[in-house]
Write a structure and sequence with these properties.
This is MFS transporter. It is a multi-pass membrane protein. Pfam families: MFS_1. This protein has a single domain (27-212, 238-424), classed as MFS general substrate transporter like domains (Growth Hormone, Chain: A), CATH 1.20.1250. Helices cover 76% and strands 0% of the residues. It is built from 17 helices and no strands. The longest helix has 30 residues, at 119-148.
Length: 437
């Protein structure tokens, strides 16, 4: 056969695009990447938590607790607002663009903290940090829920939150060490610069869009047999989603109030604990260690509690976790030594680990995939307003009645929150028999 008689040579065979699948194992590479990125998100908070309250007193000469806590309030309010837009925009435009924009807001933050000539710069830096945290953390949450499907939401949220708050703990500890060795500025904030650069690289080059997985999940969505969610359709408006998540739907609204109180405790600890621990004349590195215990136990505990909620359900973990937080806060209020405070912060971390990933799993259980991003955004609006409420209310009580009184007040609010969940929330992830193989 001559050259002209030969059949044309086929071009290179391109592999067919793999069909989208739900599940942690099927999406392990992307899921692991998003876990790593969320660790960098948490690290941006950890770089400043130990240092800023001390910077306020030692460098800027601030003495009123309420005034010192303004940076926490600024962070919480802007993060709450950014959460809402993260959910709305991720449903409308996709998850990855929102993630990238969120990291762009992080670029100036460490530089502003390093060069801040007055406290106003610190507050402004925390406004930008709040936007960064709201856009990036909300988006990674939604992306992981997209990838894993309905059966492993608790585990997915446990891994996500463990990475984020584990990084808060490690970075808080590292920042405290750097501050002790090299001063309050600039060394601790160089961590944030490196985190931002790495996150922009990973998010821009390696992260893939996950909205297609949400559409696949929506196509496979099965209504509950008990009819609890029959009124929650796929075509709810933004106003209806806001109303359902805030006060109408029992599970969604209970999760929102518990999330707010949980972060009220975190916001209070962020601004108040370093000052409380300093009353015992502890060195900066020990204060950093005490502050790191809380998110470390919180982060590590979520590796267990998230998956546990997939097996035993959500409600009892949330109720029990809020009560455990109340006990921990009472112990911290009674404490006056490193050992007692270490025990209290560890118990507080355990209680938070029971609650944090489980609340996000509740939102994933109830919200339809078509408006999941917006429901997560609304929930995180209320949850992260807790930062501001805890900082402002805690500062006012501390100014009027002392640091310990502010901690006791938070313990009482945690008891009220736990009672509300016990009375109003239903189980959103009832156990079902495993089908025969």
């Amino acid at each position: 056969m001559g050259r002209r008689d030969r059949p044309p040579t086929a071009g290179p065979v391109m592999p067919e695009k793999m069909p989208l699948r739900l599940g942690l194992r099927a999406n392990a590479a992307q899921f692991t990447l998003l876990v790593a990125i969320n660790a960098l998100v948490g690290g941006m908070v950890g770089q400043q938590q130990t240092v800023l309250p001390l910077l306020a007193e030692d460098v800027f000469g601030l003495s009123g607790y309420t005034f010192i806590f303004t940076y926490v309030a600024a962070f919480g309010i802007t993060k709450a607002i950014a959460n809402y837009f993260a959910g709305t925009f991720s449903d409308r435009y996709g998850r990855k663009p929102v993630l990238m924009v969120g990291w762009l807001f992080a670029i100036p933050v460490p530089l502003m903290l390093i060069w801040a000539p007055d406290w106003g710069w610190v507050v402004a830096a925390n406004v930008l940090l709040g936007i960064n945290q709201g856009l990036t953390w909300s988006t990674t949450v939604v992306m992981k829920i997209d990838l894993v499907g309905p059966n492993q939401r608790g585990l997915a949220m446990g891994l996500n939150e463990a990475a984020g708050y584990g990084a808060v703990a490690i970075t808080s500890l590292a920042a405290g060490y750097l501050a002790e060795q090299y001063g309050l500025r600039p060394a601790p904030f160089l961590l944030g610069l490196s985190y931002t650069a790495l996150a922009l690289l990973l998010s821009g080059v390696f992260v893939r869009e996950t909205r297609g997985h949400a559409l696949l999940d929506a196509g496979q969505h099965v209504a509950r047999s008990d009819g609890l969610h029959d009124h929650l359709h796929a075509d709810l408006t933004n106003r209806e989603i806001l109303a359902q998540t805030t006060f109408k739907e029992p599970a969604l609204s209970s999760a929102s109030q518990a999330g707010l109180v949980n972060n009220l405790n975190f916001g209070l600890s962020w601004g108040l604990f370093p000052l409380l621990f300093a009353t015992a004349d502890l060195p900066v590195d020990q204060i950093g260690l005490l502050f790191a215990i809380y998110p470390a136990v919180w982060g590590a505990g979520q590796l267990f509690t998230g998956g546990l909620s997939d097996r035993i359900g959500r409600k009892h973990l949330i109720t029990g976790g809020m009560f455990v937080q109340a006990v921990a806060l009472a112990l911290i209020a009674l404490g006056d030594s490193f050992a007692m405070w270490a025990a209290g912060t560890a118990i507080l971390g355990a209680g938070t680990a029971m609650v944090y990933p489980t609340l996000l799993a509740v939102i994933g259980d109830v919200a339809h995939p078509a408006w999941r991003g917006r429901a997560v955004g609304v929930y995180r609006v209320w949850r992260d307003l807790g930062y501001a409420v805890g900082a402002i209310a805690g500062g006012i009580v501390a100014d009027l009645m002392g640091l310990n009184a502010a901690v006791w007040a938070a313990a009482a609010v945690s008891v009220v929150s736990a009672t509300g969940v016990a009375v109003r929330m239903y189980e959103t992830h009832p156990r079902v028999p495993t089908p025969p193989r």
